Structure formats: C-alpha cells, structure tokens
C-alpha cells in the first residue's frame, strides 16, 4: 500500500511547487531577516518533499539520502546565518535587511 | 666517449653557473681560475676527441635529448663531432684557455671580474654548441648565444654610454644577419623536412630540388654569415665592438665568434657547392670587404681599431676563399688568423695595460725597450699577418691568393692589394707603438712596465703558434687538406703543385708585403711622422678616417627614415589611436557609473533579480525543450 | 481515505506556510512554521518514510526552530520594530511570486512523468536498514563531508556570535 497509488505524483508536484512559491513570496515580501530565514526553510522543505515523492515513485533510496544532506546543510546554514544575525543585531540594533547596504557599489 | 663529450660541452656551463652565482663570494682569483680551468677541461676533452678523429675513427654522433617534433620534422639536441667541428673546437677551447689565463691578470683590477669570467665561460659554452651541433637549430642556439655573450661583453663597462651603444649596435647588426640565417633554416627545413647536416647532405645528392630555392636558402645563410663575420654591408659593428675589454676582442671579435660565419659556410659546403651564383656573391663580397676594411685600417689611430679593421679584412679574404670553393684554405686561414690575431690583440692589451687605458697610437712610441716580450711576440704576429716567409700567415694567405689567381685574376689583384695594405698598416702600428720616442705624458712614462707572466705566457705561446702554425698545411704536403678531405665532395682546391707559377706568386706576394712594409718604414720610422689630429685630416684620408662614411650613410638611409616614420607614427597615428583607446576607456567609465546603480546594496532588490532570473531561466529552458 | 488525509495535510502545510510568511509577529510565524513542519512530517509518514519523518521532526521542529525561537527571544523584537515596506515593494513581491508560481507550475506540468500511474513493486527501499547501507556505501564521502560541514559551521557560529573583545 503506497500513498502514490491513491494520490498520484502530480498532486505532490503541485504541492511542493506551491510551497516553494510561498517561500519565495515570503523572501520577497518580508524584510525581517529571521522571517526570511523561515521562508528559506520553507523552500528547502518544498524541495525535500519533492525529493521524497520521487524517491518513492522510483523506489530509489538516493532521494531520501539527499534529503538527509539537505537537512545537514540547512542546519549548518541556520546556525551560521543566525550567528551572523546576532552579530548584526548587536552592532546595529535591528535586523532589517534594508539597513544592510554595505554591498552598495 | 659520451662522458668526454658531455664534459666538453658542459664544463664551461658549470663554470658559468659557479661564477655567476658564487663568483662574488669566491673572490677574483678563484673565479678566474675556475673560469680558466673549465675551459681547459674542454680543451683536454677536445684533444681526446681530436686524437680519435685524427687516427681515422668514425664521425661521432652524440644524441643528448629529444627536443621537439613538428609534423615530420624532428629536432634533437644532438651533436656531430667530425673533422671540421673537432678542429674548430680545438682552437676555440685552446685559444680560449690562453685568453682566460690572460684575463686573470688583465681584469684583476675590475670589480666585476667574476661576471666577466662567467660571460666568457658562457661564450665558450655557446661556441661549443655552435660548432658541435649536429643540426641547424642547435647551431642557431649557439649562434644566438655567442651573439648574446658578445653583447654582454662589449657592454661590459656599462657605465660608459658609448660602450652601451656599441653593444647595441653589434646586437642589432647581428639580428639582421640572424634573420637571414633563420629564413635560410626555414627554407631548408621546408625543403628537406630535416635540419640535420648529414641528412641534408645525403638528400641533396638524391633529390632534384629547384635550384633557385636552393640559391635563396644559400644566400640567406650567407647573409647570416655576413652579420656574424662582419662582412659588408653589415661590417660596421665589429670596429665598434672594440669597446669591450681587450681579451674579449681577442677571443670573440678576432679568433672565434666572428669566424662562425666561415664555419657555417664550411659546414654547409655541400649546399654552397650546388649554388655557384651564391659562391660568386660570397667571393665578391669577401674581396670588397677585404680591400675596403684594409683601406680604412690604413688611417686608424686607435690601436684596437686598426686590429679590428684588419680582422674584417682578413675575414673578407677567408670569404673569398669560401666563395671560390676552397673551404680547407679558408679553414687554414681561420686557424692561422686565430693565432696571430689573438696574439696581436693580447699584445695590444698588454700595451694598453701598461699605459693605463691609453689606446691612441699617437700617444705611444718607444715601447720596444720597456716591453720586450710584448714587442717580439707582436712582431712575429705582425710578420705573420703581413705574409712574410716563413711565418704562418704567409702560407695561408698565399694559398688564398693562389686559389684566387687560378679562378679569377681581378679578385686576385684586389686581394693582393688588400694584403699589401695589411702589411702597411700593421707595420705602421708597430712603428708607432714600439719605435721612436715615447709620446705620452711623463706620468705614463714613469709607470711603463712589462706585463706580468700571466699576460706574457699566453703571448709567447700564441706568438710561437703564429710563427710555426703554417706547418699544418704546407703547399704540396698538406696535413690539413688530407685531414679535412672526407668533408668535401671534390678534390681539394688548395693543393697546388709547387711549380714555377706558384713560386712566382709567392714572390709577388712577398714583394707586395715588403713594399707595404717599406712605405710604412719610410713614413713612420725614418721620417718619424705622427698621424695628425682627427680634425686636420683632408681629402681621401678624411674619407678613410670616416670609414667611407658608412655609419653616416646607414644613418641617412635607414636610421633617419625610421625615426621619421616613428615620429609620424607618434604624432599622428598614435594620437588618433590613443584617442580611440581612451574613448573606449571613458565609455566604459561612463557605463560603469550608470551600472553602479544596480549594485545598490539592497538585498531585497538582489532577491527580486534572483527570482526573476530563475523565472526567465525556466521559461527559456522549457521553451527550448519543446 | 488516504486522499482526504492528503488534502487535509496539504491544506495545513500551505496554510501555515502562508501564515508564517505574512503574520506580523515573528513568534507567531515561528509557531506556524512548527505546525508546517509537523504536517510535512505527516506527509513523510504517508510515504511510509518513518525514519525520515522522525529525523525531520528532530532536526527542523526540534533543532532549527528552537534555534530560531531562541534568537527571536534574544533579540526581543516587537512587531512595531518592523517598519513596513513601501507598497510598491509589496506589490512587486506579489507579482514576482505569482510569476514564479505560474512558471514553475507550467514547467513542472510539462515535466510530468509520462506514466503517472504508480506501480508498487513491493521492494524495500526506504527502511532504515536500506538507507543506512546506501548512505554509508554509495554516499560515504558526501556523508563525511556533511559531518565536516557541520563541524565547521558550529565553530563558525561560535566564532561569529562571540562578543568582540575590545582591543
């Protein structure tokens, strides 16, 4: 018994595409850096979901292994990113990304 | 065997490396001894090889390493030791050793002595490569290498701008010749698909190749030889090259490097034999050079300049012999010339040394008493170069003239005139330098002395060789011709029978030389004439003093128009060119000022660009797919 | 039955994800995100990928969200602190996200597998045993690299967030 027999792969594709777009929307819509981090997590999870779905579809464990790697990378990213944010917050008092304009050419 | 060749080749290179890197800390004497010893090792190796070759051993081919393969042309670092190259190596390393020895004393007051020896060693290394190389490219490496060393050594006293100019002149003049040489190599490589001498030789015998192409190739090679051996019209660098230290003049600009052109033509004799037109050109150029250089030499007052013009003139005679196909005669004269000209240069160096750098013969005189060894060795060499029996020059010059007489009477006449002039100016040099009273300052007179043993011993050895060197090729019984016979296709030219005609020619040559000596005697010894100051000369004398205005003509024909073109380019082409280039620059600058606005540092904007970029990418990708 | 479960879970996932993005209060966002992650774990369970679901909850809902919440608390941000973006920016964000959504869906529709019907062959491909074997055989080197990455990021995080000493 497998979920794909009932639901079908195309529903999962749509779900993850929508989830990804919500993440992207959050990234563009908000300027609070922590919320943007959350949006990125949502996008990563959308990809993870698709990987698992196709892993099931092809009956191939590699997809799930990649999910583990994604999780590891996400964990690393969040750790470093939040450390940077803490540092930024300590220096300029907020985490509004509009204040981070040192890249101006 | 291979060890001997490797030692022969790399001993001077090792000497060079030691001297250039550690010479300063080793001290002057040690670096001089190392320089001399390495060349002497090469000399011993050459002796070894010579004894083998002379006893009839096979020609030695030595393959050191592969170099490159282009298409069907394969070029290797390989060396060919046959009768010709071993003979050449013998006097290159032999005279090289003597001159190194001489330099230890001569250069002892110079702070850059280690550098001097390292350059000399490098020169010997390249000269060996030039002579021993088994293909044209190895020869070319040596050819360029000796040119480089010549440049470095002419400009050795680099603080004097004139010397630097002389070095540059030598280098540039040589470049012209080298270009010709290179083109010749290209043509030969293109035609034969190989650059090995022996393979070209065997192919020339078999295939039918367009004679005009061969002539062009031979002519190009001859232009290269012209540059290196200072033949007209590329001759003007050699007298200027006397700016270098005297041992350099002796080794490079008299005995060895300038004979590289002769060597190359001799090496490629099989090619030149097939191109009689080019041979005629060579003979004519050689003869004209001989007489022109000799006539300039008549009025020079700088002791080294006289010898320089004499060198050019003698090289011209050698080319005359080459042009007539008498290669072994040319080689004979190269060898005897190396002996007596090296001796003369070293002797003049000894004189200059005693006078603390004075080179003008008008300020010399009467040195015979103070410097007996220098005087006698130079006297022997002068007799040799003038062609007086029985010194070496007599035999070699006589053979050249005899060959010319049999081939072409006008060439013989002009060559004889050149040799009469030679006798005159050489004795003029001797009389002005060693006879009458001393004309220098009191202080110089006070310091006059005979040079130390390190200077006189090489002089004595070279003087002896200059006296007896002729025995290697006596007419009628020539060891040299016999030795070199395997190299040349036809029967030796120089092997003249000692008939009455030969004796008559010898007599004419000797009388001519005596006439020259006699004029010099009456002018400079009996009437005690001293050449007038440079600005008082008149008429033909003035033309000669100014070297037929050759430098001025080159200046007017080549340098001035070049400058004009450069000025034009600078003032007009460059102006618009730079405007265009600057236009690009300022356009880029303006563009980047605008482009900078995109980089406004706002992460939000970057994210928008990012997302939109992904959209565009996806659209493009999936449209392509369908 | 399962289809309804899927729809409900999907609705929760999308709804909470959307709420995460738009809610004013950052703490609320975090809470919604936790719910979203749990629903995703539910999806994984639907796939019968129990191990993955557990790891997902531990890493995301456990570790990452706790880290985010800690940071939020540390910064003590109030919703007044966040000055709202200009209207045109919001508008542009909606347009861009909509465009991306359209493009993605269009692209993925085109990229749908030809055989949509799923056939279960019954092989075991996602039990812990199989995953462990694959991870430590085929993917051993990336696995080690991932561990190095985590170590490096840990050191980096400590280094960056440490208070600078006044020199």
TrEMBL record, chain A:
<keyword id="KW-0813">Transport</keyword>
<dbReference type="GO" id="GO:0042773">
    <property type="term" value="P:ATP synthesis coupled electron transport"/>
</dbReference>
<comment type="function">
    <text>NDH-1 shuttles electrons from NADH, via FMN and iron-sulfur (Fe-S) centers, to quinones in the respiratory chain. The immediate electron acceptor for the enzyme in this species is believed to be ubiquinone. Couples the redox reaction to proton translocation (for every two electrons transferred, four hydrogen ions are translocated across the cytoplasmic membrane), and thus conserves the redox energy in a proton gradient.</text>
</comment>
<dbReference type="InterPro" id="IPR039428">
    <property type="entry name" value="NUOK/Mnh_C1-like"/>
</dbReference>
<feature type="transmembrane region" description="Helical">
    <location>
        <begin position="34"/>
        <end position="54"/>
    </location>
</feature>
<keyword id="KW-0472">Membrane</keyword>
<dbReference type="GO" id="GO:0005886">
    <property type="term" value="C:plasma membrane"/>
</dbReference>
<comment type="subunit">
    <text>NDH-1 is composed of 14 different subunits. Subunits NuoA, H, J, K, L, M, N constitute the membrane sector of the complex.</text>
</comment>
<comment type="similarity">
    <text>Belongs to the complex I subunit 4L family.</text>
</comment>
<dbReference type="GO" id="GO:0048038">
    <property type="term" value="F:quinone binding"/>
</dbReference>
<dbReference type="InterPro" id="IPR001133">
    <property type="entry name" value="NADH_UbQ_OxRdtase_chain4L/K"/>
</dbReference>
<keyword id="KW-0874">Quinone</keyword>
<comment type="function">
    <text>NDH-1 shuttles electrons from NADH, via FMN and iron-sulfur (Fe-S) centers, to quinones in the respiratory chain. The immediate electron acceptor for the enzyme in this species is believed to be a menaquinone. Couples the redox reaction to proton translocation (for every two electrons transferred, four hydrogen ions are translocated across the cytoplasmic membrane), and thus conserves the redox energy in a proton gradient.</text>
</comment>
<protein>
    <recommendedName>
        <fullName>NADH-quinone oxidoreductase subunit K</fullName>
        <ecNumber>7.1.1.-</ecNumber>
    </recommendedName>
</protein>
<keyword id="KW-1003">Cell membrane</keyword>
TrEMBL record, chain B:
<feature type="transmembrane region" description="Helical">
    <location>
        <begin position="86"/>
        <end position="104"/>
    </location>
</feature>
<keyword id="KW-0812">Transmembrane</keyword>
<dbReference type="GO" id="GO:0003954">
    <property type="term" value="F:NADH dehydrogenase activity"/>
</dbReference>
<feature type="transmembrane region" description="Helical">
    <location>
        <begin position="603"/>
        <end position="622"/>
    </location>
</feature>
<dbReference type="GO" id="GO:0042773">
    <property type="term" value="P:ATP synthesis coupled electron transport"/>
</dbReference>
<feature type="transmembrane region" description="Helical">
    <location>
        <begin position="502"/>
        <end position="521"/>
    </location>
</feature>
<feature type="transmembrane region" description="Helical">
    <location>
        <begin position="306"/>
        <end position="324"/>
    </location>
</feature>
<dbReference type="InterPro" id="IPR018393">
    <property type="entry name" value="NADHpl_OxRdtase_5_subgr"/>
</dbReference>
<feature type="transmembrane region" description="Helical">
    <location>
        <begin position="208"/>
        <end position="227"/>
    </location>
</feature>
<feature type="transmembrane region" description="Helical">
    <location>
        <begin position="278"/>
        <end position="299"/>
    </location>
</feature>
<protein>
    <submittedName>
        <fullName>NADH dehydrogenase subunit L</fullName>
    </submittedName>
</protein>
<feature type="transmembrane region" description="Helical">
    <location>
        <begin position="411"/>
        <end position="432"/>
    </location>
</feature>
<feature type="transmembrane region" description="Helical">
    <location>
        <begin position="330"/>
        <end position="352"/>
    </location>
</feature>
<feature type="transmembrane region" description="Helical">
    <location>
        <begin position="116"/>
        <end position="134"/>
    </location>
</feature>
<dbReference type="InterPro" id="IPR001516">
    <property type="entry name" value="Proton_antipo_N"/>
</dbReference>
TrEMBL record, chain C:
<feature type="transmembrane region" description="Helical">
    <location>
        <begin position="87"/>
        <end position="108"/>
    </location>
</feature>
<keyword id="KW-0874">Quinone</keyword>
<keyword id="KW-1133">Transmembrane helix</keyword>
<keyword id="KW-0812">Transmembrane</keyword>
<dbReference type="InterPro" id="IPR001457">
    <property type="entry name" value="NADH_UbQ/plastoQ_OxRdtase_su6"/>
</dbReference>
<keyword id="KW-0472">Membrane</keyword>
<dbReference type="InterPro" id="IPR042106">
    <property type="entry name" value="Nuo/plastoQ_OxRdtase_6_NuoJ"/>
</dbReference>
<keyword id="KW-0520">NAD</keyword>
<keyword id="KW-1003">Cell membrane</keyword>
<feature type="transmembrane region" description="Helical">
    <location>
        <begin position="139"/>
        <end position="160"/>
    </location>
</feature>
<protein>
    <recommendedName>
        <fullName>NADH-quinone oxidoreductase subunit J</fullName>
        <ecNumber>7.1.1.-</ecNumber>
    </recommendedName>
</protein>
<dbReference type="GO" id="GO:0008137">
    <property type="term" value="F:NADH dehydrogenase (ubiquinone) activity"/>
</dbReference>
<comment type="function">
    <text>NDH-1 shuttles electrons from NADH, via FMN and iron-sulfur (Fe-S) centers, to quinones in the respiratory chain. Couples the redox reaction to proton translocation (for every two electrons transferred, four hydrogen ions are translocated across the cytoplasmic membrane), and thus conserves the redox energy in a proton gradient.</text>
</comment>
<comment type="similarity">
    <text>Belongs to the complex I subunit 6 family.</text>
</comment>
<feature type="transmembrane region" description="Helical">
    <location>
        <begin position="6"/>
        <end position="23"/>
    </location>
</feature>
